[in-house]
């Protein structure tokens, strides 16, 4: 279970990205964070695995306070957090198998990690997981030969092989076409159930959040303005998330926020096409 309490993040530039965020993610629920551009979604995810340092507040994962961990402790605890990124964060010139096995590096001695001496069991598990996420048979392909959807599956496989206590997912579908986006979201919900772990997803396509997640947290200007089920996200809740606050006024993103709020499948298609591989 992940419990975030009064989390604040002020960047050195003075940007107040998070202003007292409190929320929980538990069991095997899939929770999406939505909100206009600049609302703090990405900062929130990055604070959890300390890719960015929170300014104040508390983040507890299964009884362990994350905000005060030393660098050494953090390295160990990061094994518990599977990260899936928009840009996949794979090593392009390495094979699919090498990338997936890198999810186990945090568990190995420095010497074995340096020599890439992976356990036979890890290798067998990697084959099974690659099959499960739909890229079985591609183990020896270099990642730079794969499509965007296949890369994201490899990123998911790497995260599962790590056997994390939670999956943190940052805009998993932004670089994917709509069909692949649906498949990736479906896969993430399946993983939550099968691995029995919670999944926290920063996603800007509201329709995907509505269709594939158990709970939605709406952020505006670094504050939680909505926390409820997809069916509770009515027009007025959407208005609160996307049309209030200074994000829109100060950055002039009104049109963008509004169209995202009202994005239909066809709008998602248009947006995604621009970015698809
Ligand atoms: P979102 O993911 O919802 O688009 P972000 O978390 O990226 O929002 O950004 C939240 C706020 O923090 C924005 O005002 C953004 O400009 C600011 N911000 C994000 N990253 C940095 C950074 N590295 N340095 C300074 N300000 C940042």
Structure commentary:
It is a single chain. By secondary structure, the protein is an alpha/beta fold. The protein has a single domain (about 30-50, about 80-275), classed as Rossmann fold (3-Layer(aba) Sandwich), CATH 3.40.50.300. About 40% of the residues lie in helices and about 20% in strands. It is built from twelve helices and ten strands. The protein has helices spanning about 40-50, 70-75, 95-100, 110-115, 120-130, 150-160, 180-195, 205-210, 235-245, 245-250, 255-260, 265-275; strands spanning about 1-10, 15-25, 30-35, 55-60, 65, 80-85, 165-170, 200, 215-220, 225-230. The strands form two sheets. The protein has a six-stranded mixed β-sheet, sandwiched between helices. It has a four-stranded antiparallel β-sheet with strand order 2-1-4-5. Helix 6 (about 150-160) runs parallel beside helix 7. The chain is globular and about 50 Å long. The model is unreliable at about 245-275 (pLDDT under 50). The structure holds adenosine-5'-diphosphate. Adenosine-5'-diphosphate binds near residues 11, 17, 35, 40 and 43.
